[in-house]
C-alpha cells in the first residue's frame, strides 16, 4: 500500500502532494529532497529509507514521482509500475510530462490520483475507466509558433498539404481534438562492437504502441510482415525473413489470426498502450547502422591525433538524424582542435565527462564522414592510449526498424463514428547503447 | 515553501471567496479555489480559509466539489468542529442520484480522518455496501477499513465482517479485491483475512478478471493458503502457470512469490518455477523504465543464489548501457561476476575492463573490484588487467586497484608474487586513506618480497606529520614493525623514529596506544613480537567463487518481491576487507594480557569467534569482548559480544549486539558459544 504520492521538480519544488493514509507526516517531502541532495552520485537509488519510511521514486521528464510506504514487504514492482503508469497517464491527459504541464494541470492530477488510489490501494489505472470520472479539462501549453500556421491555408482552410504525421500530435492532450490513431513501431538497439567491426553484442528491444485519440473504437487490425517468425526454431530459408526471439502481447490482443496471417486484433482504449513487445538478440537481419574506422597516434609535438571515419550502412534512401558520437579521451585534455568534413557538424570537448562529442545532425545512408581531432594533453603517456574509447553513439533512425518488422496494413473496423479517421504508422529506431571499442 | 507576504495572499483569497459576485460566477469561484489548492500543494499553510471553503462545498459543480474535498481532507484534522458543517452536505450527496457524486461523497467522508465523525459515517457506509453502483461499493468497502483504523481499539463489528466476506463474491473484481484489503486491515490482530478452500478457489477463478494490481494483491494474500493435498497443490500451480510468464513484472513477481511459498516442501518444483521465469525476467531487464530494470536486477541476484547457472548463457544481457545510471551499472557488474565461467570469461573481462576507466569514479571502482572478484578464479587474466590499470597513474584507479589487490591476495596467496612486483611507484599516486592503508598492509605483510619496501615506508614515515588519517598511521605502525621482523637491518632506524614520533608527539590516543603497545612488545623480546605480529597472511577458504553450494530457495523466498533486495547491500568484498584490516590490529590488543587464557582463545578461534579483549585472568569480575560474523553474502551480519564471569557459573552473562539483525545467526552463535563454555568449564574442574 502507498501512504503518500508526491511530485517534485528537479529543484525540489512541491508540485503535487497527496496523503492517502495519514500515517506519515508531510515532512516526508523535505526528507526525500534532503536525501536526494545529500548524495554525491549522479542518480539517487530507487529505494531510500528513513527510519521506517521507504521512499520509492521514478525519475521522468525532469520530475521525481515519489511514493512513500511504511510496509517494507510491499512489492517494489507494483509501486514502480504504478508510478510509471501515473507518469503515462499524465502524459496521456496533459500531452506531456514536464514541470510546466504538471503545474498547469495540478487539479487534473489530483483528480486522477483520487480515482487511481483509495486508502493507498490502486483502484484502477485504465484510461477507459478513468475517463468516466475525470471532469477537469486539460490545459495544454503550446507556444505560439509561426510554423503551426504553415499548414493553415487561406481563410483558415486546412490545406491538406502535409501528409507527414504532425510531431505535435503525439504530445497533445487526449480530450478533444481530431480522431486519429497512431501505430508506432519503436525499437531500441544496444550494440557492442569491436574495433574490427565484429559484433560482440547486438540486441533489439521493440515495441508496437497504439496511441488512440478516437472517442470510441471497436476493433483495429494490425497486419505485420507475413514472413515474421517467432523464436529461433524456424528455419528462415534464404530470404531475409523477419525474425524475433521472443514476443509478448497486451492481454487484450486477440491472436486468432496471428499464427496464420500475423494479424493482431485489438480494441484499443483511449490513450497509449503497448500492444506487443519483442526482442531480438545477436543475429540482426541487417548490418549494424554504423561502423567506425579509427586511427590514433601521437604526433611529434606530443599531441594526441585521432582520425575517425564513420560510415552509415543504412540503405541509401533512409538516413540517421541527431547522431552524436561521444569519444572518451584521456584525463587532462586541455584543448581540442578539429577538422570536420562538413560545416553542419560540430565537435566539442567536455572535460567533466572526459569526452569529445561529435554531432552530426543528419547522416544519409551509404555515406561516410571523416573527422580529425587533435588533443593537447600535457601528461600524455603511452598508457593514456588505453583510456581512449569506447565511442558511444546516440542516434535516431526515423522510418527504419532494425528488426525489419513492418506494419503491412492498419484497418479499422467501421463504426458509426462520424467523420474521417486519420491513421498513422510510424517507425523509429533509437540507440539504447551503441558502443564501439577502440 | 514559505512565501514573503503569504499572509496577504491568504487575506486576498479570503476576500475573494467571500465575495458574493465571485460566488455567483461559477468559473471565477472555481479559479479562486484552484489558487487555494495550488498554494496548498506548494506547502503554504492556507488552513485559515477552512470556513470559506466549507461553504464552497455546497455546489452542483463536480469539479469544484472535488477541489474543495482535496482541501478539506488535508485540513480537517486541524478544524474538527468546523468539519461537522461539511458532514451534512456529504450525507446529502450520499443520496444523490449520480453514482459518481455518491462515491465521491462517501470517499471523502471517510478521508476526513476525524474520529468524532464515526456516528455520522456508519449509516452511509452500511448503505454504500448495498449500493447498486460498483464504484460506490468499492469506496464503501475500503471506508470500513479506514473507519476501523481510526478506532483501532474498538470492537470489531461481526456484521460488517460477515458482509465483507460475502462481498468477496461481488460481480465487480475491484470490489472483491477491496474486500480482501479491508478485511486484511480490520482483522490484522487475528492474522488477517481467513482463506479457506472455497475462498481460495473462488479467488483463483476470478484472478483473470482482475487488473494487474488486483492480481498481485490476490496472489499475495493467497500465500497464506495451504493446499490440503498434493493434487490440489498441483491444480493450483497449473492454474497459475500463465501468470508466471506474464509480461507484467508485477504479476510475474507475485506469482513466483506464491509458487515459492506453496512449494516450500518441494524444492524441485521451486527450481522448475525459477527456470520458467527466466524468460520474463530477462524481458523485464530490457524494460524501458530503468527503475523496473533495477528492481529486476536486484531480484535476479536473489535467484542466482540458488541457481547460479540460471542466466549463464545470457550474460550479455547484463552488459552496461552507455547512458545507464551508476546504480544500475553496479548491480549489473555484481551479476556479471556471478555469471562468469570458462566460456565467457574472456569476453566478460574485456567488457569489464572498459568500465574500469569510466568517468564516474563509483562505477570505475565497482568495475575494478568486480575484476578482482573474478580474479579469485581466473587470477592470471585479471591480474594482467589490474596491472595494466596501474599504468594509467590515476589516483582513484590506482587506489581501487591496490585495494582490490589486497583483497585478492588475502584469498589467493598464489597471486602475491605478481602483486608484489606491481606495487612499485604506487605510493606517489595514492592520495586517499583507503588506498594508502591497502598499500601499507601489502608492504607490511609481504615486505620480504618487495625489494623497495623499506624505502617506500620511509617516505611515509617522513611525511607522517602531515598525515591526517589515524587509520593510516596505525597501519603504518603495524607495517613498519612487520617489516622490521623480516628485514631488521634496513628498518630499525625508521621504526625507532616512527615510534618516537607516535609516542611523544601524536595526539590521537589510538595511534599512541598502539605505538606504546608495540614498544612494550619489543621490550618483551623478538620472539614474542614475532608470535603476535606474524599472523595469517591469507585465508583461502573465503576465496571460493565457483562451486559454492547453491543456497536453498527458502533462505530468500521471504524477501522476494519486497523492498529489501533493493536496499544497498554490502558486498562480500567489503566484509573481507574489514576483516583483514581488523585482524592485525585485534591480535595486538590481546597480547597485552597474560598467556593463561590461551586455551580459551584457541577454543574460540576453532569455532571462528575472534576475541577483542579481556581482563587479566585473576581479576574478578572477568570480562571478554568478542566478535564474529557470518559469511553468507549479501546478508553478512556482525556480532559483538561481552562475556561476564563472576566466579560462579550461574552468574555468567552474555550481552550481544548485532548489525544487521539476523535472528537465526544469533541463535547459532549462542549455541556455539554455550558449547565452548561448557567444554572449558568442565576442563577447569
TrEMBL record, chain A:
Query: Can you quote a single GO CC term?
Result: early endosome
What is the first-listed, main subcellular location in coarse terms? Answer: other
Taken from the record, one Pfam family name reads Clat_adaptor_s
> Which InterPro entries does the entry link to?
Adaptor_comp_med_subunit, AP2_Mu_C_sf, AP_mu_sigma_su, Clathrin_mu, Longin-like_dom_sf, MHD
Q: How does it sit in the membrane?
A: Peripheral membrane protein
GO biological-process terms attached to the record? intracellular protein transport; vesicle-mediated transport
Cellular localization per UniProt = Early endosome; Golgi apparatus, trans-Golgi network membrane; Membrane, Coated pit
Keyword flag Membrane: yes
Domain called MHD: residue spans: 178-437
Keywords attached to this entry: Coated pit, Endosome, Golgi apparatus, Membrane, Protein transport, Transport
Which SUPFAM superfamilies does the UniProt entry name for this protein? Second domain of Mu2 adaptin subunit (ap50) of ap2 adaptor, SNARE-like
Q: Which domain of life is it from?
A: Eukaryota
- Biological function: Component of the adaptor protein complex 4 (AP-4). Adaptor protein complexes are vesicle coat components involved both in vesicle formation and cargo selection. They control the vesicular transport of proteins in different trafficking pathways. AP-4 forms a non clathrin-associated coat on vesicles departing the trans-Golgi network (TGN) and may be involved in the targeting of proteins from the trans-Golgi network (TGN) to the endosomal-lysosomal system.
Protein family according to the UniProt entry: Belongs to the adaptor complexes medium subunit family.
State the protein's name. Answer: AP-4 complex subunit mu-1
From TrEMBL, chain B:
Record-linked InterPro entries: AP_beta (IPR026739), ARM-like (IPR011989), ARM-type_fold (IPR016024), B-adaptin_app_sub_C (IPR015151), Clathrin/coatomer_adapt-like_N (IPR002553), TBP_dom_sf (IPR012295)
SMART domains associated with the record: B2-adapt-app_C (SM01020)
* Keywords carried by this UniProt record: Membrane, Protein transport, Transport
Q: Where in the cell is it found?
A: Endomembrane system
Ranges for domain Beta-adaptin appendage C-terminal subdomain come to 570-678
Annotated Pfam families? Adaptin_N
- Coiled-coil boundaries: none
- This chain belongs to the protein called Adaptor related protein complex 4 subunit beta 1
Q: Which domain of life, per UniProt?
A: Eukaryota
Q: Can the keyword Transcription be found in this entry's annotation? A: no
Report the record's Gene Ontology biological process terms: intracellular protein transport; vesicle-mediated transport
Which family does the entry's similarity section mention?
Answer: Belongs to the adaptor complexes large subunit family.
Which Gene Ontology terms of cellular component type are present?
Answer: clathrin adaptor complex; endomembrane system
Look up and give the membrane topology term: Peripheral membrane protein
Amino acid at each position: 500500500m502507498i501512504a503518500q504520492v508526491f511530485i517534485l521538480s528537479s529543484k525540489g519544488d512541491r508540485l503535487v502532494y497527496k496523503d492517502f493514509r495519514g500515517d506519515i507526516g508531510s515532512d516526508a517531502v523535505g526528507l526525500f529532497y534532503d536525501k536526494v541532495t545529500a548524495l554525491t552520485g549522479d542518480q539517487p537509488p530507487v529505494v531510500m529509507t528513513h527510519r521506517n519510511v521507504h521512499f520509492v521514486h521514478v525519475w521522468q521528464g525532469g520530475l521525481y514521482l515519489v511514493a512513500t510506504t511504511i510496509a517494507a514487504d510491499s512489492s517494489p514492482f507494483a509501486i514502480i509500475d504504478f508510478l510509471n503508469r501515473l507518469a503515462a497517464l499524465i502524459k496521456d491527459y496533459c500531452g506531456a510530462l514536464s514541470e510546466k504541464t504538471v503545474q498547469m494541470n495540478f487539479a487534473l492530477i489530483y483528480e486522477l490520483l483520487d480515482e487511481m488510489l483509495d486508502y493507498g490501494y490502486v483502484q484502477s489505472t485504465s484510461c477507459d475507466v478513468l475517463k468516466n470520472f475525470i471532469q477537469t479539462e486539460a490545459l495544454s501549453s503550446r507556444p505560439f509558433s509561426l510554423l503551426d500556421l504553415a499548414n493553415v491555408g487561406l481563410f483558415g482552410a486546412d490545406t491538406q498539404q502535409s501528409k507527414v504525421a504532425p510531431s505535435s500530435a503525439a504530445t497533445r492532450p487526449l480530450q478533444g481534438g481530431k480522431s486519429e490513431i497512431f501505430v508506432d513501431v519503436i525499437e531500441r538497439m544496444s550494440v557492442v562492437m569491436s574495433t574490427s567491426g565484429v559484433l560482440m553484442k547486438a540486441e533489439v528491444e521493440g515495441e508496437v504502441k497504439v496511441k488512440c485519440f478516437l472517442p470510441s473504437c471497436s476493433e483495429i487490425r494490425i497486419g505485420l510482415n507475413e514472413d515474421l517468425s517467432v523464436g529461433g526454431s524456424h528455419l528462415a530459408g534464404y530470404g531475409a525473413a523477419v525474425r524475433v526471439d521472443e514476443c509478448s502481447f497486451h492481454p487484450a490482443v486477440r491472436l486468432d489470426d496471428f499464427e496464420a496471417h500475423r494479424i493482431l486484433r485489438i480494441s484499443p482504449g483511449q490513450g497509449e498502450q503497448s500492444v506487443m513487445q519483442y526482442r531480438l538478440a545477436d543475429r540482426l537481419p541487417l548490418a549494424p547502422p554504423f561502423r567506425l574506422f579509427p586511427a590514433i597516434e601521437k604526433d611529434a609535438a606530443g599531441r594526441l591525433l585521432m582520425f575517425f571515419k564513420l560510415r552509415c550502412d543504412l540503405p541509401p534512401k533512409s538516413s540517421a538524424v541527431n547522431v552524436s558520437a561521444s569519444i572518451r579521451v584521456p584525463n587532462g585534455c586541455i584543448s581540442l582542435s578539429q577538422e570536420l568534413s562538413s560545416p553542419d557538424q560540430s565537435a566539442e570537448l567536455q572535460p567533466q565527462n572526459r569526452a569529445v562529442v561529435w554531432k552530426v545532425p543528419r547522416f544519409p545512408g551509404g555515406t561516410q564522414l571523416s573527422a580529425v581531432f587533435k588533443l593537447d594533453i600535457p601528461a600524455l603517456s603511452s598508457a593514456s592510449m588505453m583510456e581512449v574509447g569506447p565511442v558511444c553513439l546516440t542516434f535516431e533512425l526515423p522510418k527504419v526498424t532494425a528488426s525489419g518488422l513492418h506494419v503491412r496494413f492498419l484497418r479499422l473496423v467501421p463504426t458509426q463514428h462520424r467523420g474521417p479517421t486519420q491513421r498513422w504508422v510510424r517507425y523509429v529506431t533509437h540507440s539504447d547503447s551503441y558502443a564501439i571499442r577502440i | 515553501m514559505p512565501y514573503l507576504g503569504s499572509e496577504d495572499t491568504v487575506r486576498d483569497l479570503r476576500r475573494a471567496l467571500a465575495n458574493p459576485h465571485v460566488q455567483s460566477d461559477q468559473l471565477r469561484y472555481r479559479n479562486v479555489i484552484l489558487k487555494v489548492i495550488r498554494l496548498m500543494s506548494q506547502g503554504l499553510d492556507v488552513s485559515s480559509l477552512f470556513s470559506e471553503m466549507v461553504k464552497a462545498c455546497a455546489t452542483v459543480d463536480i469539479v469544484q466539489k472535488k477541489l474543495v474535498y482535496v482541501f478539506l481532507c488535508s485540513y480537517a484534522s486541524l478544524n474538527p468542529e468546523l468539519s461537522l458543517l461539511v458532514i451534512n452536505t456529504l450525507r446529502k450527496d450520499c443520496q444523490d442520484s449520480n453514482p459518481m457524486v455518491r462515491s465521491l461523497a462517501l470517499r471523502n467522508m471517510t478521508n476526513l480522518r476525524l474520529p468524532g465523525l464515526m456516528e455520522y459515517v456508519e449509516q452511509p457506509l452500511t448503505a454504500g455496501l448495498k449500493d447498486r453502483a460498483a464504484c460506490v461499493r468499492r469506496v464503501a468497502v475500503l471506508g470500513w477499513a479506514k473507519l476501523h483504523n481510526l478506532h483501532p481499539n474498538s470492537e470489531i463489528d461481526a456484521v460488517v465482517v460477515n458482509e465483507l466476506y460475502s462481498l468477496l463474491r461481488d460481480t465487480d473484481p475491484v470490489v472483491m479485491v477491496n474486500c480482501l484489503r479491508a478485511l486484511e486491515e480490520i482483522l490484522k490482530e487475528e492474522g488477517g483475512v481467513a482463506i479457506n478452500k472455497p475462498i481460495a478457489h473462488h479467488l483463483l477463478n476470478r484472478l483473470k478478471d482482475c487488473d494487474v494490481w488486483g492480481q498481485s494483491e490476490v496472489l499475495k494474500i493467497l500465500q497464506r493458503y495451504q493446499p490440503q493435498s498434493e493434487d490440489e497443490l498441483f491444480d493450483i500451480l497449473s492454474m497459475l502457470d500463465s501468470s508466471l510468464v506474464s509480461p507484467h513484472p508485477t504479476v510475474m513477481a507475485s506469482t513466483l512469490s506464491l509458487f515459492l511459498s506453496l512449494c516450500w516442501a518441494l524444492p524441485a518444483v521451486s527450481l522448475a518455477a525459477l527456470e520458467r521465469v527466466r524468460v520474463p525476467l530477462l524481458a523485464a531487464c530490457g524494460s524501458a523504465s530503468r527503475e523496473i530494470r533495477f528492481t529486476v536486477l536486484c531480484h535476479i541476484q536473489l535467484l542466482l543464489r540458488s541457481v547460479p547457472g540460471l542466466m549463464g548463457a545470457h550474460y550479455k544481457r547484463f552488459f552496461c548501457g552507455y547512458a545507464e545510471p551508476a546504480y544500475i551499472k553496479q548491480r549489473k557488474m555484481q551479476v556479471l561476476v556471478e555469471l562468469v565461467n570458462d566460456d565467457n570469461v574472456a569476453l566478460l573481462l574485456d567488457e569489464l575492463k572498459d568500465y574500469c576507466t569510466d568517468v564516474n569514479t563509483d562505477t570505475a571502482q565497482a568495475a575494478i573490484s568486480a575484476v578482482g572478484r573474478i580474479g579469485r578464479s581466473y587470477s592470471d587474466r585479471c591480474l594482467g588487467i589490474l596491472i595494466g590499470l596501474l599504468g594509467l597513474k590515476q589516483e582513484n584507479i590506482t587506489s581501487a586497484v591496490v585495494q582490490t589487490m589486497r583483497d585478492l591476495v588475502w584469498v589467493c596467496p598464489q597471486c602475491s608474487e605478481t602483486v608484489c612486483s606491481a606495487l612499485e611507484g604506487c605510493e606517489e599516486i595514492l592520495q586517499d586513506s583507503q588506498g594508502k592503508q591497502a598499500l601499507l598492509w601489502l608492504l607490511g605483510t609481504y615486505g620480504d618480497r618487495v625489494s623497495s619496501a623499506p624505502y617506500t615506508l620511509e617516505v611515509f614515515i617522513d611525511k607522517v606529520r602531515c598525515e591526517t588519517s589515524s587509520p593510516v598511521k596505525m597501519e603504518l605502525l603495524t607495517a613498519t614493525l612487520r617489516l622490521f621482523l623480516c628485514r631488521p637491518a634496513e628498518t630499525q632506524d625508521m621504526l625507532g623514529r616512527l615510534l618516537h614520533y607516535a609516542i611523544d608527539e601524536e595526539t590521537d590516543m589510538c595511534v599512541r596506544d598502539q605505538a606504546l603497545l608495540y614498544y612494550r612488545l619489543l621490550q618483551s623480546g623478538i620472539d614474542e613480537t614475532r608470535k603476535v605480529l606474524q599472523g595469517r597472511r591469507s585465508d583461502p577458504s573465503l576465496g571460493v567463487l565457483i562451486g559454492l553450494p547453491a543456497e536453498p530457495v527458502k533462505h530468500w523466498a521471504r524477501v522476494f518481491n519486497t523492498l529489501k533486495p533493493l536496499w544497498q547491500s554490502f558486498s562480500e568484498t567489503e566484509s573481507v576487507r574489514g576483516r583483514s584490516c581488523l585482524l592485525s590490529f585485534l591480535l595486538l590488543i590481546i597480547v597485552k594480557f597474560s598467556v593463561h587464557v590461551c586455551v580459551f582463545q584457541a577454543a574460540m578461534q576453532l569455532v571462528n569467534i575472534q576475541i577483542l579483549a579481556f581482563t587479566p585472568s585473576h581479576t574478578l569480575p572477568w570480562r571478554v569482548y568478542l566478535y564474529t560474523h557470518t559469511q553468507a553474502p549479501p546478508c553478512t551480519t556482525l556480532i559483538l559480544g561481552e562475556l561476564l564471569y563472576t566466579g560462579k557459573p550461574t552468574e555468567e552473562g552474555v550481552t550481544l549486539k548485532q548489525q544487521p539483525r539476523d535472528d537465526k545467526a544469533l541463535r547459532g552463535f549462542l549455541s556455539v558459544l554455550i558449547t565452548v563454555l561448557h567444554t572449558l568449564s568442565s576442563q577447569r574442574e
